């Protein structure tokens, strides 16, 4: 049984949308779905979904939503139910246009998705993200209080888009427990920052910007990622690949061995506990 949610998720989501200056709503019409496809293409530089797929997803009762500033679409999100039916929602794509950056549009989309999923009877939402992208790790783990559950090497295979390029697409599968106290607090704007003080650096950023592995011999270890991996990939693809390999060896190795990512600290490091819960 899920815990009783003591706040009103619909009102909380509405407050987040108002703070971002947008209206978030479900989409079903072909013109709006066409706009979502165009938005995703402008962000990733490739065709991630088609209008026909979005139309079918929406008609089947899945989550397709957009964030609008007036008539201008600033963000879109697609999610679908997993197995067993409606126990959990998988959020496949969420993107915000450059014009909406820094306004809290992504946060408003996720809180709308949370309210929608709870109304549909779901207790959790899952999604994947590139563990090398520091801002996404901060958003997912600190801003939303989601928690990684599995490291997935080269999950999608080569994607060849403007963001992922032709490199390996390692991902962290992340679960958002919609009724947990931490997520409820996050929905009200309370950051879920984990203190990494005392943790052993298992991976650090070197003076040259490269990965520096260390001994993961403490009960709590810290796994750093570079401040801007996308800039690194653009300027030095070899260094970007080195970071992918290093993070996979360290973080994947820890999680495969039973360690848990408990959060993300202010210094841009995953805080990983090797102690059994």
Question: Your description of this structure?
Answer:
It is a single chain. The protein is α+β, with helices and mostly antiparallel strands. It has two domains: 9-187, 3-Layer(aba) Sandwich (Aminopeptidase); 200-273, no CATH class. Helices cover 34% and strands 26% of the residues. The protein contains eight helices and twelve strands. A seven-stranded mixed β-sheet has the order 1-2-3-4-5-7-6, sandwiched between helices. It has a five-stranded mixed β-sheet with strand order 9-8-10-12-11. Strand 2 (63-69) and strand 3 (72-81) form a beta hairpin. It starts with 8 loop residues before the first helix and ends with a strand.
* Largest sheet data: 7 strands, mixed
Continuous helix count? 8
Q: In total, how many domains does the architecture comprise?
A: 2
Kindly provide the name of the CATH class of the largest domain. Answer: Alpha Beta
Helix percent band: 25-40%
What separation lies between the terminal Cα atoms?
Answer: 21 Å
- The tally of strands reads 12
Rounded to the nearest angstrom, the radius of gyration is 19 Å
Percent range for β-strand residues? 25-35%
Given as residue ranges, the uncertain stretches (5+ residues, pLDDT < 50) are 1-5
The fold-level CATH name of the largest domain is Aminopeptidase
| Global shape | globular
Q: Please identify, by name, the CATH architecture of the largest domain.
A: 3-Layer(aba) Sandwich
SSE sequence, one letter per element: HEHHEEEHEHEEHEEEHHEE
CATH-wise, what's the superfamily of the largest domain? Answer: Gcn5-related N-acetyltransferase (GNAT)
The average pLDDT score comes to 93
Kindly report the spatial arrangement of strands forming the biggest sheet: 1-2-3-4-5-7-6
> Structural class, from helix and strand content?
alpha+beta
Keywords: Transferase
Protein name: GNAT family N-acetyltransferase
InterPro entries: Acyl_CoA_acyltransferase (IPR016181), GNAT_N_AcTrfase_prd (IPR038764)
Organism: Amycolatopsis eburnea
């Amino acid at each position: 049984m899920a815990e009783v949610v003591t706040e009103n998720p619909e009102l909380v989501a509405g407050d987040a949308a108002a703070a971002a200056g947008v209206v978030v709503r479900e989409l079903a019409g072909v013109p709006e779905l066409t706009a979502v496809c165009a938005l995703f293409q402008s962000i990733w530089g490739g065709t991630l979904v088609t209008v026909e797929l979005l139309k079918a997803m929406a008609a089947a009762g899945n989550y397709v939503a957009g964030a609008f500033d007036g008539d201008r679409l600033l963000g879109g999100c697609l999610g679908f139910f997993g197995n067993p039916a409606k126990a959990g929602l998988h959020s496949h794509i969420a993107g915000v246009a450059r014009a909406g950056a820094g306004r809290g549009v992504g946060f408003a989309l996720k809180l709308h998705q949370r309210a929608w999923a709870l109304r549909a009877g779901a207790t959790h939402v899952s999604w994947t993200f590139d563990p090398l992208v520091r801002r996404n790790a901060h958003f997912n783990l600190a801003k939303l209080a989601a928690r990684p559950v599995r490291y997935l090497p080269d999950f999608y295979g080569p994607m060849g888009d403007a963001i992922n390029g032709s490199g390996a697409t390692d991902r962290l599968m992340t679960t958002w427990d919609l009724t947990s106290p931490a997520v409820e607090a996050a929905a009200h704007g309370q950051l879920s920052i984990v203190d990494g003080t005392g943790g052993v650096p298992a991976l650090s950023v070197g003076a040259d910007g490269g990965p520096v592995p260390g001994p993961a011999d403490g009960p709590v270890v810290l796994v750093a990622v570079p401040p801007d991996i996308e800039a690194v990939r653009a300027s030095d693809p070899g260094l970007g690949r080195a970071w992918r390999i290093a993070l996979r060896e360290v973080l994947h190795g820890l999680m495969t061995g039973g360690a848990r990512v408990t959060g993300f600290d202010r210094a841009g490091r995953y805080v990983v506990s090797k102690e059994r819960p």
